[in-house]
Design brief:
By secondary structure, the chain is α+β, with helices and mostly antiparallel strands. It is 40% helix and 26% strand. It starts with 5 loop residues before the first strand and ends in a 5-residue tail after the last helix.
Length: 89
């Protein structure tokens, strides 16, 4: 039995470390990252290459989309920024 997972992922630009991107995917996160790094996503092409800094996987598509919306909101931004952003010493 295969379990379908939906992911909300957080990318950090390696060329512009202040840039972070939040997205939703139905494919494995590493496959989606490859699409971003090929320059196939207009909103992230300019800041390639990217690396994954975190992701959340859930079994329900609606929940994943709601999480993406939340993480892009003001309070969601504060939540993930406080917990997922790793600062260099």
């Amino acid at each position: 039995m295969t379990v379908t997972m939906y992911h909300v992922y957080f990318l950090r630009s390696e060329s512009h470390p202040g840039k972070t991107y939040i997205g939703f995917t139905e494919v494995p996160v590493n496959e989606r990252l490859a699409v971003h790094n090929r320059g196939a996503v207009p909103s992230t092409k300019r800041f390639s290459p990217w690396r994954v800094i975190a992701y959340v996987g859930v079994q329900d598509r609606a929940t994943a989309l709601a999480l993406e919306t939340y993480f892009k909101s003001g309070s969601g931004h504060a939540f993930w920024h406080k917990r997922f952003i790793v600062r260099d010493p």
